[in-house]
Design brief:
Elements: H1 5-22, H2 28-35, H3 39-67, H4 69-88, H5 93-121, H6 124-154, H7 160-163, H8 165-179, H9 193-216, H10 221-243, H11 257-274, H12 277-286, H13 292-298, H14 300-316, H15 322-339, H16 353-375, H17 383-414, H18 419-426, H19 439-471
């Protein structure tokens, strides 16, 4: 129990919080019908969670160093459980979105403390083994999310996607309090509240503006005002980080091309690989007539290929530079998204399989090596900051990807259908439109929107992969220059043997 207990406690929380990133995807059509939700509502059901997680991840880690990592972790689990109950009892889309945001706050407290807790308990070989198990659990959570969500949505109902977190949370809290010791960071650490607030405002305003652009247009007043607020928040964040004694992000790292490349790669990775999937799920269930379980099974080629590639990376590609695995993986993801842009009014889900396999292979290459690529670009004392930054970039990339691709899809559909019709269809109300528009027209409109979103995702992955290959270079070892008074190599006298 002393060996496996802390690892089990931490992995329970990690699995639960990462599962909730993707588990809701296949339930979106059911949620739309039950709560009369629009496409914007569905975007925020996904984005509210990812945004709160991304915006508060670094701050939660700093707070945990001051207040105690176990204390913050347990508080995060309790908050996550309470928000999950709120999600399950939601009576409208606004309530569900708010509850998902609170869920993200709890998830940030949990996620930020997982690795420090493991590092404080395990040393040497045990630490390596524990991190390996934690990594496998992290990868499997995102992979099985759509299938688990489909089983729950088709069985007891979509609300049980959130209710199932309650017993897991109880077990996680009990086990954490029993077997995980408390630990803290250096006493001089302080929480950068100004940086936290300005970064959260920047991320939220950017995502909100992108979502509003899908319904109001890119040049509408709410969209432009939101983008201006995002720009102002980013400026304030930079000023706050320059003056903070313990900043969330040391701006000097941004002068390192390799670090910037890895952060942009992390941002693009989650966006390109997963940002289109919520709308693909809506298409499969709303227009293709699939059940939630069938919709989850369609994504198995992606998850299966990802697992296989992850195993091969560990066994066959050990020692290969991260720029090759990360850059090559992003190029595969880009190619996979291009291969998915082949839908029309008469196609079925089977045409997506080659593209899903390519995206899965790319994901299996990028996910296990991305954090290592970030750590390799900074000094050891900045490892914690770099790790937190890459996780923040990934979650922010997912949130922005969902927003951008939803706006692209809606804009493309507007070229074929009236705006109100496209809005209702994307929100899950295809049945309400069938009396006005033919099934062929509805299929063609949504397929065209998905194709355009997939192309944008493909461009994102391809450009990010090329950027990684160019910017992320292995550091050259310093050249050893012998002292001026040392003899030439052929003149050196061998040291006497003892």
């Amino acid at each position: 129990m002393r060996t496996w207990g802390p690892l089990t406690a931490v992995c329970l929380g990690t699995f639960m919080l990462l599962l909730d990133v993707t588990i809701v995807i296949v339930a979106l059509p059911d949620i739309a019908r039950a709560l009369d939700a629009s496409l914007s509502d569905l975007q925020w059901v996904v984005d509210g969670y990812a945004l709160a997680l991304a915006a508060l991840l670094l701050a939660a880690g700093a707070a945990a160093d001051v207040l105690g990592r176990r204390r913050v972790h347990v508080a995060g689990v309790v908050l996550f459980a309470a928000a999950s109950l709120w999600c399950g009892l939601a009576s409208g889309p606004g309530m569900l979105v708010a509850a998902r945001g609170v869920q993200g706050v709890g998830a940030a407290a949990m996620f930020a403390t997982t690795l420090p807790l493991l590092g404080s308990v395990y040393q040497g070989r045990q630490r390596s083994a524990a991190l390996g198990v934690w990594g496998a659990v992290s990868g499997s959570a995102a992979a099985v999310g759509p299938l688990v969500g489909g089983l729950l949505a088709e069985g007891p109902g979509w609300r049980w996607i959130f209710f199932v977190n309650l017993p897991v949370s109880v077990a996680s809290v009990w086990l954490t309090l029993r077997v995980v010791p408390e630990s803290r960071g250096p006493r001089e650490m302080r929480v950068d509240w100004a940086g936290t607030a300005t970064f959260a405002c920047f991320a939220g305003a950017t995502t909100y503006a992108t979502v509003r652009a899908g319904s109001d247009g890119w040049t509408s007043t709410p969209t432009l005002v939101s983008y201006m607020l995002a720009a102002l928040s980013l400026l304030c964040f930079v000023l706050a980080e320059r003056r903070a004694a313990h900043p969330l992000l040391d701006l000097a790292l941004l002068r390192r091309p390799a670090f910037v490349g890895v952060m942009l790669g992390a941002l693009a990775f989650n966006a390109a690989a997963f940002g289109v999937i919520p709308y693909l799920s809506i298409w499969l269930q709303t227009l293709e007539g699939m059940s939630p379980v069938q919709g989850g099974l369609v994504l198995l080629p992606l998850t299966g290929a990802s697992v296989v590639a992850s195993v091969l990376v560990g066994k066959l590609l050990h020692g290969v530079p991260a720029r090759i695995t990360v850059g090559g993986g992003l190029l595969l993801i880009g190619a996979g998204m291009f291969c998915q842009a082949v839908l029309d009014a008469g196609t079925t889900w089977t045409v997506l399989v080659p593209g899903l396999v390519l995206v899965g292979l790319g994901t299996g290459l990028v996910a296990p090596t991305l954090a290592g690529a970030a750590l390799a670009t900074v000094r050891p004392e900045r490892a914690g900051m770099a790790g937190g930054a890459v996780n923040t970039s990934r979650q922010l990339g997912y949130a922005l990807g969902v927003a951008v691709f939803g706006t692209v899809l809606t804009s493309r559909m507007r070229d074929t259908l009236p705006h109100e019709a496209a809005h209702t269809l994307a929100g899950g109300g295809a049945e309400a439109l069938r009396g006005t528009f033919s099934s062929h027209t509805l299929h063609a409109a949504f397929a065209s929107g998905l194709n355009t979103a997939a192309v944008v995702a493909g461009v994102t992955g391809t450009l990010a992969g090329a950027l990684i290959l160019v910017l992320v270079r292995a550091p050259r070892p310093p050249r050893q220059t012998p002292p001026l008074d040392s003899p030439a190599p052929e003149e050196r006298v061998p040291a006497p043997r003892p």
